[in-house]
Design goal:
- It is a single chain.
- The protein has helices at residues 2-10, 13-20, 24-38, 54-82, 101-111, 129-132, 196-202, 222-230, 242-245, 275-290, and strands at residues 43-45, 50-52, 86-93, 115-122, 138-142, 150-159, 161-166, 186-190, 214-219, 236-239, 251-256, 262-269.
- The chain is α/β, with parallel strands linked by helices.
- Strands 4-3-5-12-6 form a five-stranded mixed sheet. A three-stranded antiparallel sheet has the order 10-7-11.
- The longest helix has 29 residues, at 54-82.
- The model has no long low-confidence stretch (mean pLDDT 90).
Length: 292
């Protein structure tokens, strides 16, 4: 039944196989077996697409909520066996996992109703400090994280970069920019304990050809950075989603065509054996499969 539901949702044998953690031939075999038992075709198959038949749609409509209830019962039993209870302190920076944040919390609550997630905001001036100090159990943070005492889990978001400039800036009318064009600009330094390699990834010290990019005022918070950008004190590269979650009438956000990837992942202390952390990581991985 899981194979049928996965194929009905994705309309793609490869994605259904990935969700079920089996091979594509195995998905085909399972679907044929279900169709044989039912006595009718559940899918229309062509070289280009897979769609539900009328019978398949009827089965999907009835089965999906019922299977969801059975799955909830299963995870409740698993929860009790593993001891996934208490409070899981989840750090997050900015908008966290963006559009996946709410589904992540919802699915975790559904699977582990006896475990509450306590959200703790972290700052880009000290992205890993709360984790090391034990203030959070696991954190959603921007990569890269290259620390031997920390483990990087599944990547929740992968997006590009944008450049934030004030409205009077020379680039404010542009539809896109390249990093090479920033050689005459002033970026910002950072206060706090963020690793140098981490800040350099998000706010580069030089252009792709190696020309240094000047750094001016030090900032300790994201709102401080945006205020200084709006005041014309400098420009800054940042995650593309900032334009959606932090729009401002006094700032222009411009796509950076060669900025590379800006990723968010779950990170926790290496060697940590909390069942709550493993449960969250499992939920995140399942969410990533179904959201593709």
């Amino acid at each position: 039944m899981k194979a049928f539901l996965a194929l009905a949702r994705h309309h793609h044998f490869g994605k259904a196989a990935e969700e079920c953690a089996v091979s594509q031939p195995r998905i085909s075999q399972l679907i044929r077996g279900i169709e044989t038992k039912i006595g009718g075709s559940l899918f229309n198959r062509t070289s280009r697409q897979v769609t539900l038949t009328v019978l398949g749609q009827q089965l999907f409509t009835s089965l999906e909520p019922a299977y969801g209830r059975l799955e909830a019962i299963y995870y409740q039993a698993q929860n009790a066996a593993r001891g996934v209870t208490g409070i899981l302190r989840l750090g997050f920076m900015g908008s966290g996992a963006n559009e996946l944040m709410a589904p992540l919390l919802t699915r975790f609550r559904e699977r582990y109703p006896d475990c509450d997630i306590e959200l703790v905001e972290t700052s880009f001036s000290d992205p890993l400090g709360p984790l090391r100090r034990g203030e959070v159990d696991v954190t959603l943070t921007r990569l890269p994280v290259q620390e031997t005492d920390l483990t990087v889990g599944p990547v929740m978001i992968s997006e590009g970069f944008i450049l934030a400039v004030g409205l009077q800036h020379r680039l404010a009318t542009r539809t896109h920019v390249s990093l090479e064009e920033l050689k005459s600009e002033t970026m910002f330094a950072i206060t706090g304990n963020a690793p140098d390699y981490w800040w350099d990834h998000h706010v580069p010290r030089e252009t792709p050809s190696g020309v240094p990019i000047s750094r001016g005022a030090k900032v300790g918070s994201f709102q401080e950075l945006l205020t200084l950008v709006a005041a014309g004190k400098g420009v800054s590269t940042m995650a593309a989603s900032v334009a959606v979650y932090y729009p401002r009438p006094d700032i222009k956000y411009i796509p950076v065509v060669d900025g590379g990837e800006n990723e968010v992942a779950l990170v926790w202390r290496s060697g940590e054996q909390l069942s709550r952390i493993k449960a969250l990581v499992d939920v995140a991985r399942s969410l990533l499969v179904t959201s593709r």
